[in-house]
Design brief:
The protein is α/β, with parallel strands linked by helices. It has 2 domains: about 140 residues, Rossmann fold (3-Layer(aba) Sandwich), CATH 3.40.50; about 140 residues, 3-Layer(aba) Sandwich (Rossmann fold). About 40% of the residues lie in helices and about 20% in strands. It has 11 helices and 10 strands. Strands 5-4-6-7-8-9-10 form a 7-stranded mixed sheet, with helices on both faces. It has a 3-stranded parallel sheet with strand order 1-2-3, with helices on both faces. Helix 2 crosses helix 3 and helix 4 runs parallel beside helix 5. It starts with 9 loop residues before the first helix and ends with a strand. The relative contact order is 0.15. Pfam families: ABC_sub_bind (PF04392). This is Putative ABC transport system substrate-binding protein.
């Protein structure tokens, strides 16, 4: 189950691939249902309750808000988490090495990711002075995300303009025009808005602002570059935890794993449209370059 909309259905497919790689045959060994609740808390709660009624064995849940709702409803049902930035700060686990309770899985937490994005922006455009941040006022991880970004912006001599909205419905042209009016030259987008990348990039482009984000879906939709964990690899890895639980392991005894695979995807065409020249040093490090 994902807090994101159906536009990120590729995550479910990657999870299924992870199961196939472990030898599972869907329909013979395992049944997988995929649910996308598009940031709707009531819909998320209804899905969880229905899955409990259906007596599912394991819930694989992506994103912090969805896990928070799931933990409220799921009782002792086994939970595998994925694409969660900080399960300790969110109160989901006692520790990474020994999470306890009925939960285990993967976190996206990796010190330095936020700093690396800002560093890349400065490497691409040394004269950069002002950046904006589009974040969620309802995500418990936003504060940490913003503090880390402010620290790196200060270190890099950048002014950071934060814009926090309470959901995707609040994403409109006026937000990006306000950023531009305040002098923003580019926008970093919080990953909670994945699935709405097409609209975000369309509106930002109309305001003359390039986008930088975590996940490659944004780069393929027209963001200038993305740098973050390999979300596809993490969804495939979720299958490992499901396999361990099916074989008798208790979730709370399985350490929550931190990411080891990262991807830099550069959209050279998008950069060119905004007059940003991507240095060869960045292109050489990219895992993928979109022309």
């Amino acid at each position: 189950m994902s807090w994101w909309p159906p536009e990120v259905a590729v995550h479910a497919e990657q999870f299924r691939k992870g199961l196939r790689d472990l030898g599972y045959v869907e329909g013979r060994d395992i049944t997988v249902e995929a649910h996308f609740t598009d940031g709707n808390r009531d819909r998320t709660r209804a899905v969880v309750r229905k899955l409990i009624e259906d007596k599912v064995d394991i819930l694989v849940v992506s994103t912090t808000p969805a896990i928070a709702v799931t933990k409220e409803e799921a009782g002792s049902l086994h939970i595998v988490i994925s694409l969660v930035s900080d399960p300790l700060a969110a109160g989901f686990a006692a520790s990474l090495s020994n999470p306890g309770g009925n939960l285990t899985g993967m976190t996206t937490f990796s010190p330095g990711l936020v700093a690396k994005r800002v560093e890349l922006m400065k490497e691409i455009r040394p004269e950069l002075r002002v950046i904006a941040f589009l974040g969620s006022s309802r995500d418990v991880n936003t504060g940490t995300f913003l503090r880390n970004m402010q620290t790196e912006a200060d270190r890099s001599g950048l002014r950071l303009i934060p814009y926090l909205i309470d959901g995707p419905a609040r994403i409109d042209r006026a937000v990006f025009e306000a950023m531009r009016h305040e002098g923003a030259e580019a926008v970093i987008v919080q990953p909670i808005f994945m699935g709405h990348q097409e609209r975000i990039i369309h509106l930002a482009n109309a305001a003359g602002l390039p986008i930088v984000a975590d996940y490659s879906l944004f780069a393929h939709a027209g963001a200038m570059f993305t740098y973050g964990i390999d979300d596809h690899a993490q969804m495939r890895r979720a299958a490992y935890f499901v396999d361990r639980i099916f074989k008798g392991a208790h979730p709370g005894d399985l350490p929550i794993q931190q990411p080891t695979e990262f991807r830099l995807v550069v959209n050279a065409g998008a950069a060119k449209r905004f007059g940003w020249a991507i240095p060869l040093s960045v292109l050489a490090r990219a895992d993928e370059v979109i022309e």
